[in-house]
Design goal:
The complex is a heterodimer.
Chain A (H helix, E strand, L loop, with lengths): L3 E8 L2 E9 L5 H12 L8 E11 L2 H16 L3 E7 L3 H8 L5 E3 L8 E6 L6
Parallel strand pairs in A: 2-3, 3-4
Antiparallel strand pairs in A: 1-2, 4-6, 5-6
Chain B lengths: L1 H7 L6 E5 L8 H16 L3 E7 L5 H7 L6 E5 L10 E6 L4 H15 L4 H22 L6 E9 L2 E8 L13 H8 L3 E7 L2 E9 L6
Parallel strand pairs in B: 1-2, 2-3
Antiparallel strand pairs in B: 3-4, 4-5, 5-6, 6-8, 7-8
Helix pairs in contact in B: 4-5, 5-6
The chains are: A alpha/beta, B alpha+beta.
Amino acid sequence: MTIATVEASADHGAVCIRLCGEIDLGNVSTVEEQIYAAVSGRPIVVLVVSVDLTNLTYIDSVGTRLLFDLASHLRRLRIALKLIAPFESPARRLIQFSGLDFLHANRRCRKRRHWYYHSYTAGLK
Amino acid sequence: MEEQIRAAVSGQRTVVSVDLADVSYIDSTGKRLLFDLALLLQESHIVLEVIVPFDSPIRRLIELSGLQSIAAVILVHRAESSRVGPVELVLPAQPWALKNIRHTLRRWLSGVGASPRVVDDVLIAVGEACTNVVDHAYGTEGGTVNVHVEFQGPDVVATIADTGQWGKPAVGNRGRGTLFMRHCSDDLRIDHGPTGTTVVIRRHLIEEGT
């Protein structure tokens, strides 16, 4: 079984999810369940969800689909999504290949070797 | 011998490799032992890898035994050769096998001196091709996926083959798989034939301009 860990923490209206390990067809549904569980059922209103992909050593179209589905789901709930992916990381390259036009980069964060992608939401844009 | 193997694999493990490089003969009781071990490990979600050199006298026996439908059979070049030889994996077309394919490819790619970028690219391209096999090639009866990787001139060449009949091409969300394969390779050929599908991925080992 492919191994990935999903660590979630919450601070006020921000939920941070750290993904470590590998995501493929073998474990994507388990990872998906854990992410959705971390986002829902919070006692306070969630305004932003950040998903840190820094320690993801493998991801492919199965995992990126999960991220895009999550982006759509959160957009419907008017929750912003931040994806944190270092330069040259597999996750970041695949996100770029996908040509996501509904996401944009926050240039200020480039110095920290991360890109923050925000989905357009009425509340945060 | 069975007892010794069972004792060796007890405890927390995810993969057990049995190296048959120095085994020159195996009969039906030996094959039975490997089958029993694969099934025993499967109950604990442990994968059995069986390593057999290409020129081994027992290669044909292992191939004909059908072991590759329940365990990962890895065919390797003999270690004494200085040049890194090809590696071939035959595995059940099951989601769990994807991780084993990556594990073997990582080892092989580090042996040929691939950069992290090239490793990522080859893993993604091969991973997408294998995911397609797992998803589309076979019906409920299942089948195997065959991955052959070798170094040819400046390129790493990976060939992924199945013997299934694809129900329908990957479209929609999973259609990104082919896009990623193209981005991660220098040349990509996909051949859907009546007896199966073959995908050939070429990736320069050394990146241009670096």
